[in-house]
Each structure stands twice: as structure tokens, then as C-alpha cells.
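Exercise 7b. C-alpha cells:
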């Protein structure tokens, strides 16, 4: 599921609609995990192979546990596009990733800010949708954008750090597993942001993404 860039509460609404999509449009696939990718992102070469290996590590396509995997490994901190791209250009050459041996590493209890790419188990997706709906119905109850709503959700589930006290009664649920990932298999390329302007001062990228990429920030008139 790919999400376009949205502003403010529209971003929360977009996530809620995405998480409800299987029940609304694909009723025969509600027990499959869901990948949500934001539109200003790029997938790693052989993304399907990475995803297949991830699902094997998590216990198959259905998975025995509730889990959330952040597919984006944020490592270049938010700054202007020019500053971030200068750091990105100075990175050492990439190693040769081996799908046969190294593959991807799941890092338990590692939360990486940024929601460019997320993998959710079926049950966790449905429960997260409940909180996104609750956040829409209670403006201001959850500070921040969609990534903060998701962080609050995994905290109140007891999945990560402390329990968030402001939660709807229906969200008293068993803990889940939260994972970071390395290498990140989603890259952020949205140097222009509907939230932070045409030249965003909150741009960020992944240094571990297994391909060096160009960013549309460098494009000039006539490139398209």
C-alpha cells in the first residue's frame, strides 16, 4: 500500500484508511501482513527477496506473533536537504550485500523514527487502525503526526518503552514485538515536503539502504 504525502491530520486519516483497506476491499486477505510505504520513498533492489526473508524470520506470512517492523533505518538526522545530501554524498562505498548469507537483520526493541516503510502483522494492523480512528476523533489528544501516533500505539501496547496512559479502553491489549531493520530496505527521497515546504528543513535519509540513489531535489526544469 503506497501513501501520498498528506498534511497534518490528513496523514493520520491516510494511515487509518490504509489500515482498513483489507477489510473494505480485500476481505479474503485480512489475515495477511501489510506493508505500508509512503509515496516519497524508494524500495531497495530485490525488495521482494528482503521481504520474503523477513517474513520467514517472523514466522511465515501470517506470523505467530503480533509485530511491527520499521523497514526504514533512519541514520542521517533531519536537516535541510542540502545538508543531508552532503552527508549522504560523503558516505563510504556500500559493501556487497549477500542475500544468501547476510540478508536482513531484525533488531528487537529498536524503534527508528520515520514511517517511510512499515510491515505490520494482521492483528496489530487492525488494532493500530482503532487508535488512528480514535486520534482522528480526538484532535490534539495525540501530539505529532502519523509516526507519533504509531509510537504512542506501540507504547500503550507495552511493546516498547513505557505504557502510554492516554488510551481508549478497547486498546488494553497484549504486548507485541517491535523491530528495527538493517539494512533499511526503504529510502526516503522526499526533500520537498507538503508538511515542511518545497525545501524541507526536516529531510532525512538512510545510510544503510543497499543502493546509492539520486534525490529529486537535484532535478532542474526540463528533467521530467
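Sequence design result:
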Amino acid at each position: 500500500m503506497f501513501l501520498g504525502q498528506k498534511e497534518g491530520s490528513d496523514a493520520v486519516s491516510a494511515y487509518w484508511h490504509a489500515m482498513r483497506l483489507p477489510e473494505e476491499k480485500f476481505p479474503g486477505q485480512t489475515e495477511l501482513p501489510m506493508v505500508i510505504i509512503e509515496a516519497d520513498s524508494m524500495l531497495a533492489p530485490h525488495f521482494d527477496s528482503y521481504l520474503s526473508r523477513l517474513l520467514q524470520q517472523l514466522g511465515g506470512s501470517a506470523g505467530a506473533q503480533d509485530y511491527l517492523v520499521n523497514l526504514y533505518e533512519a541514520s542521517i538526522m533531519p536537516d535541510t536537504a542540502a545538508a543531508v545530501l552532503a552527508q549522504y554524498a560523503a558516505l563510504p562505498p556500500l559493501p556487497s550485500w549477500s542475500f544468501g548469507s547476510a540478508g536482513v537483520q531484525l533488531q528487537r526493541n529498536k524503534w527508528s523514527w520515520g514511517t517511510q516503510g512499515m510491515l505490520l502483522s494482521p492483528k496489530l494492523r487492525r488494532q493500530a487502525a482503532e487508535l488512528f480512528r480514535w486520534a482522528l476523533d480526538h484532535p490534539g489528544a495525540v501530539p505529532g503526526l502519523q509516526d507519533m501516533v504509531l509510537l504512542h500505539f506501540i507504547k500503550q501496547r507495552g511493546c516498547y518503552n513505557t505504557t502510554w496512559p492516554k488510551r481508549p479502553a478497547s486498546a488494553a491489549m497484549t504486548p507485541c514485538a517491535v523491530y528495527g531493520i538493517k539494512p533499511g530496505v526503504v529510502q526516503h527521497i522526499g526533500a520537498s515536503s507538503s508538511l515542511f515546504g518545497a525545501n524541507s528543513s526536516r529531510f532525512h535519509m538512510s545510510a544503510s539502504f543497499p543502493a546509492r540513489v539520486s534525490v529529486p531535489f537535484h532535478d532542474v526544469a526540463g528533467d521530467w
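Instructor comment: Confidence is low (pLDDT under 50) at residues 162-172. DSSP finds five helices and ten strands in the chain.
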